[in-house]
Automatic annotation (TrEMBL):
<dbReference type="GO" id="GO:0042026">
    <property type="term" value="P:protein refolding"/>
</dbReference>
<protein>
    <submittedName>
        <fullName>Molecular chaperone DnaJ</fullName>
    </submittedName>
</protein>
<dbReference type="InterPro" id="IPR001623">
    <property type="entry name" value="DnaJ_domain"/>
</dbReference>
<dbReference type="InterPro" id="IPR008971">
    <property type="entry name" value="HSP40/DnaJ_pept-bd"/>
</dbReference>
<dbReference type="InterPro" id="IPR036869">
    <property type="entry name" value="J_dom_sf"/>
</dbReference>
<dbReference type="GO" id="GO:0051082">
    <property type="term" value="F:unfolded protein binding"/>
</dbReference>
<dbReference type="InterPro" id="IPR018253">
    <property type="entry name" value="DnaJ_domain_CS"/>
</dbReference>
<dbReference type="Pfam" id="PF01556">
    <property type="entry name" value="DnaJ_C"/>
</dbReference>
<dbReference type="GO" id="GO:0005737">
    <property type="term" value="C:cytoplasm"/>
</dbReference>
<dbReference type="InterPro" id="IPR002939">
    <property type="entry name" value="DnaJ_C"/>
</dbReference>
<dbReference type="Pfam" id="PF00226">
    <property type="entry name" value="DnaJ"/>
</dbReference>
Amino acid sequence: MEDPYDILGVARTATPDEIRKAYLRLAKKLHPDLNPGDKTSEGRFKEVASAYDLLSDAEKRRRFDAGEIDASGAQAPRDRYYRDYAAQGHPYESAAGYADFADTDDFVAEIFRRQMRRARGADLHYSLTVEFLEAINGATKRITLPEGGSLDVTIAPGLQQGQVLRLRGKGAPSPGEGETGDALVEISIRPHPFFTRHGDNIHLDLPVTFAEAVLGAEIKTPTPTGAVMLKAPKGSNTGTVLRLKGKGVPRADGNGDLLVKLKIMAPTEPNPELEAFLAAWAPANYQPRREMLP
């Protein structure tokens, strides 16, 4: 990095007032507000601001002169340039940081006032909980604002847990003449009683009877967009997974799939007829735990 004394054009013996005047002289010439679109002037102004930041601080200047720190003022990179001041909490973020300039130089004070007039309004943060199927299929929800009024939020199909929606121009007004801020809405999705999402696919455990699994059947099956008939092949079992294409999460190039896992359910109430049948049914070659036991 170039020597800060050389950047400001002052001697190493310069007084604080001489350093300050040198900075103001260069700022009037190079400030980006006076050179819109001029990347060369913008880059030079950053160097000037960085040099002044170091030399205007008595302790930093002493350490630099003693060789304890380099021209950047620190070992690790840090936010130094004018466009980053507001975002990173730089001392020139508020009017107080400009007080030493405003007292003696109307130009810098006017630059600050101009920036404050153009300052954008703050973003406002909200949270919104939606149902699982609303997140999959899309919906319009309304937020009641703490200060009164409401905000309509469009839930696009396929929205994900934790996604943040930006509603432009729905935040706080500018303190001056700048743009209104945005509303940032973080989405939380309630779990569904039987659907679960995995990426763009939706999983479903579907209870079936012994007869449906053994003989095969067409089974009325729920999907996020309504029930359809699912064909379970003959000889299905618990754990058999059937795929319903296009019945999953909407995406740009189509939909994911619905993966249906069959789950054979025995009757929970006593059934003498079924009990009598199973007691008499004992096929010799039916050993489901054959591979588990010696």
